[in-house]
Amino acid sequence: MRTLALPRLSPPRLVALALPLLLACSAKGDDKPVIGLITKTESNPFFVKMKEGAEQAAAAQGATLIAAAGRSDGDNAGQVTAIENLMAAGARAILISASDSKAIVPAIKKARDAGILVIALDSPTDPVDATDALFATDNYKAGQLIGQYAKARLGATPARIATLDLIPGHPTGAQRHNGFLSGFGLPSYEKTRNELAQPPEVVCMSDAMGDQAKGQTAMENCLQAHPDINVVYTVNEPSAAGAFTALKNAGKEKGVLIVSVDGSCRGVQNVVDGALTATAQQYPLRMAELGVEAAMAFIKTAKKASGYVDTGVQLIAKDSVAGVPSLSADKALGLCWGDK
Amino acid sequence: MIARRLAFAGPLVALLIACTFFALQSPRFLTGANLSLVLSQVMVVGVLAIGQTLVILTGGIDLACGMIMALGSIVMSLLAVKHGWHPAMAIAGGMGVTTIAGMINGLLVTRIKLPPFIVTLGTMNIAFAITQLVSRAQTFTDLPPLLTWLGQSVWVGNTPIAYGAVAMLLLYALAFVVLRETAAGRHVYAVGSNLEAARLAGISTNRVLLSAYMLSGLCAGIAALLSIARTSVGDPQSGQTENLDTVTAVVLGGTSLFGGRGIVLGSLVGAMIVGVFRNGLTLMGVSSVYQILVTGVLVILAVATDQWSRKA
Asked: Residue A294 and which of A30, A219, B112, B256 are 20 to 30 A apart at CA?
């Protein structure tokens, strides 16, 4: 059989060899300063928007933006590779949303030791000062806003809460979850704690990984065990949409409050339609613009950005309640990100 | 022998053309520092792919190797950091666990006669779950220097070459010689070409199969150490893309998914092709989604070529 190996240099293989030429048209040959952007994935709309914002800001400022990403959320090795490749590409500044807040730190240190400005966007590293600066939503505050709102809406009714969380050990997920409980007035963990608090009012906790289908499954299972759930906290809007589908299929969508974080156009539209009770809106475009501005300032003047810059968060709800300031969903549609 | 060299030539030509292309696109690509960077980026998948090649040569597949690697790296970190074991003992412990995991795969394939795809699909999930449970999904930092030593570099002129990359190349040389020059190596090909004929020829086919899966487990243990060395942390989320990346590398390297045909050095070339695309496209400023797209197309073409060459 091995005598048949000759045809391996065959037409299909030759097509494969020609493939790189198809990509040649996208080649860049200028000497603009290079800014790198590393996101968690290139498929999550939040990061798609962030990348678009960064590309526009870089083009406006006369820089080339090179974007790279991990293959999936949690792919630390992929982000390490991206940092190395961006260093090889001559990037002077790197903006990164770390998939794993701890595991990425040694790779970031290498880049900073090489004189590259590194700014964390959206997700802090652990420790936070492993990057020069952090431009991000205050996730704990985002959680507190929706927690306060849910409590105000529920009033004196005893709370039976389900939480659809991110992935184990993820600071963003932990901060939103614990912030929500704190805003709701329940015992919770402080901002820096990377575990999820579970007071007795939280009857069901499930990791839905920010995914709509997993959110639906998690909610269905929670309802099986606890049909009397009246508040659902979700870590992001896709999982909230999944939870709503599950509640609707069970005929319970009217009596249950669903709150979430993100502020995407689809999510805000869900608030308008009543499929989502309230959401906390964050601003990925602003993170990207501020990041690119800081990178350009560093390239031009060698001045490094530092510390934490809160890129803002606002509570979005259809019906406002007394004592909890919120923006109406109609107004929020003008500020939302992603496809409308 | 000539035919086998030609089988190896296809992937090698593909790699060289890709390198030429990227060298023309970016002046930074064809530097010693960048090429050695690519080598260190592929060392984890490269070492896993040695075990995967052995298994695929026998006509099987190991979908669990990446997750077993993650388990190994967590066991090593846990023993060294939490339980205070001597780092050398922690490494041995991690490799022991991954080799046992490979043995379990092998026993399920040979004793209970389950299809390798199903067995390793199952153990992949089991290894993932155990990894999450024992690590509590937490990443381990502040590891003892011995665990990250392979991430250090030896300087050749002004090019740093990671010890881990050198270790990978040595392992490939070893695997190449063993597969080509020893009876055990020939038995692997015989079992993959025709299991029944190999059995009738007096080869202990179960022993060959069991060895292939155990060696794949051992490779996962070595890869675990390399993964720790590369990222300086024990990461429970690692290994998720490596499972299928190794299959990609093996297939791109010209080894037949139907077993019995292939050359282990091809898998190194296959891993390098993927690494070169990722690195080169990033240097050019092209989205890494294209790297995934190109890899997907190349895999289909490689398997199509294999199929086509069988019919010819």
From this structure: A30
The CATH code of the domain that includes B166 is: 1.10.3470
Q: List beta partners, residue A314.
A: A281
Alpha-carbon dihedral angle through residues B270, B273, B274, B277, given to the nearest 10 degrees: -170
Residue B24, in any domain of the structure? no
Q: Which domain holds residue B82?
A: 36-149+160-307
Query: Amino acid letter at B126?
Result: I
> Taking CB atoms and an 8 Å limit, are B7 and A8 in contact across chains?
yes
Tell me the whole-structure pTM to 2 decimals.
Answer: 0.82
Q: Chain A contacts of B136, Cβ < 8 Å?
A: 168-169
Q: Is B160 helix (H, G, I), strand (E, B) or coil?
A: strand
**Per the CB < 8 Å rule, is B232 touching A106?**
yes
Q: How far is A26 from chain B (nearest CA, A)?
A: 7
> Would the pLDDT of A73 be above 90?
no
Taking CB atoms and an 8 Å limit, are B7 and A26 in contact across chains?
no
CATH fit for domain A139-281+315-338, picks 3.90.1570.10, 3.30.230.10, 3.65.10.10, 3.40.50.2300: 3.40.50.2300
Which CATH number describes the domain made up of A11-137+283-305? Answer: 3.40.50.2300
pLDDT tens for each residue of A156-193: 999 999 999 998 778 889 999 999 999 999 999 999 88
Contacts B284 to A, Cβ<8 Å: 23, 26-28
Determine the residue among A14, A15, A19 to mutate to test chain B binding: the one whose Cβ has the most chain B Cβ atoms within 10 Å: A19
Whether residue B143 lies inside any domain: the answer is: yes
Q: Which residues of A touch B305 (CB under 8 A)?
A: 7-8, 10, 12-13
Q: Which amino acid is at B44?
A: V
What interface predicted TM-score (ipTM) does this complex get? Answer: 0.76
CB atoms A102 and B260 under 8 Å: no
